[in-house]
Amino acid sequence: MSDPDPGAPPAASASHAFAAPARALRTIVRGEGAALWDAAGRRFVDLGATHGVGNLGASHPEVVAALRRQAGELLYLGTGYDVPVRSEFLARLTGLLPPALDRVFLSNSGTEAVEAAIKFARAATGRPKVVAALRGFHGRTLGALSATARKEFREGFEPLVPGFVHIPYNDPAALRAAVDETTALLLLEPVQGEGGVHPATEEFLRAARERTRETGSLLAFDEVQTGLGRTGRLFAFERWGIEPDLLTLAKSLAGGVPIGATVTTREVQARFRGSHHSTFGGSPLACAAGVAALEVTVRDRLAERAERLGRTALNRLTGLPAERVREVRGLGLMIGIELRERAAPYLARLEERGFLAIPAGPAVIRLLPPLVIAEDDLAAGLEAIEQVLGDG
Questions:
Q1: Is 5 designated active site?
Q2: Per-residue pLDDT tens for 252-267?
Q3: Nearest Cα to Cα of residue 89 among 372, 238, 281
Q4: Which of 82, 297, 348, 373 is the most exposed place for a label (fewest CB within 10 A)?
Q5: What is the CATH number of the domain that holds 128?
Q6: pTM flag (> 0.90)
Q7: Would you place residue 369 in the very low, low, confident or very high pLDDT band (cuts 50, 70, 90)?
Q8: End-to-end alpha-carbon separation of the chain, Å?
Q9: 220 is in which domain, residue-wise?
Q10: Which of 247, 265, 299 finishes a domain?
Q11: What is the DSSP letter of 27?
């Protein structure tokens, strides 16, 4: 799901500190497409600095125009009343999904979308157990954090929510053993982002769908990072043709404006008991940005572009020196370069050359460039990676 910016390169090292005067961080003051400029006027290429939020690049003009129009009409209204732009956004989003996925709960972030999925599954099934994967990342609030089996994120906040079990990723046998008649939800990322950019195998995802149906459990795909074209499909699950019962989205869904969406079926909605609400979820401003972002993503065929550029990038990166690089993997423009040593020094060297990438754990360089990145900028970024990893 979303990224916790862990142990990041110098430019993001305090990203989760409590609010305080800025330390020695690079100050970015504006952006256009995949280009970012710092306070000194130096240009950088975003290879991941926006953590997957910037699929459309920085301040896409159509998103900005939609925000300006909506800000002049209505900034906020509670969900007890209809707002045309909210209805339009919901219609556009569900129109891109399989017909069964036509019920949407709107919130403000990926973590909130996951929290809602957990609540909906427990309420709809009357069961307590949630199964998630080792190395997965689903958020930092207590429910989402309980689904995240990473000691460095959980430490200091325990005891967490009971009822969560973790299995090895891409292990169908472990999945079948863990998901049983007490399981409410199986929660998986189609590609683990923060966990090192590990794509799921088709066998694993098919086992997930089959086993949840056998046990009456629900299957959720966390596509907060993989959704909206990032992996070369509009939604990553389309690559395998395996539909979930719940889908979580956020990050680039509104072109850089905070939003979260938990999408589910009428059947799950009908079985839901209890209540759930988000004061700012589905605000007119976020929905207006979302309408524009979906329009651009589909019209400009950004998923297809990500597939093409990602294939080119992966092919080129396979030539990196084996004595330094353990593996290169990914889907679309979601790529992980696993090193045999820590990634931070190489991220710093990339920044010195004008390219901003991010880690995925201590030893993986993660590339999440905007799907609108100019091909020359992407090529230059790949050349810079070859240079820093090829240096003695």
A1: no
A2: 999 999 999 999 999 9
A3: 281
A4: 82
A5: 3.40.640.10
A6: yes
A7: very high
A8: 35
A9: 61-299
A10: 299
A11: P
Site of tokens 């891409």: 170
Number of domains observed in the structure of the chain: 2
Q: For residue 159, is the peptide bond before it cis, meaning its omega torsion is within 30 degrees of 0?
A: yes
Q: How confident is the model at residue 25 (pLDDT cuts 50, 70, 90)?
A: confident
Same domain, residue pair 291 and 310:
no
Among 44, 89, 204, 222, the active-site one is: 222
Task: Provide the token pair at 257.
Answer: 């404006």
- pLDDT tens digits, one per residue of 151-174: 899 999 999 999 999 999 999 999
CATH number of the domain to which 344 belongs: 3.90.1150.10
- Is the residue at 2 inside a domain? no
Match 């998103």 to its residue by tokens. 63
Q: What are phi and psi of 133, to 5 degrees?
A: -105, 145
Q: Is 173 exposed, middle or buried (0-12, 13-18, 19+ CB in 10 A)?
A: exposed
Instruction: Confirm whether 251 is a catalytic residue.
Output: yes
> Is 137 known to be catalytic?
yes
- Domain membership of residue 125 (yes or no) is yes
Residue 47 near residue 343, CB atoms below 8 Å: no
Tokens 């995240």 found at: 148
Name the active-site residue from 105, 120, 137, 204.
137
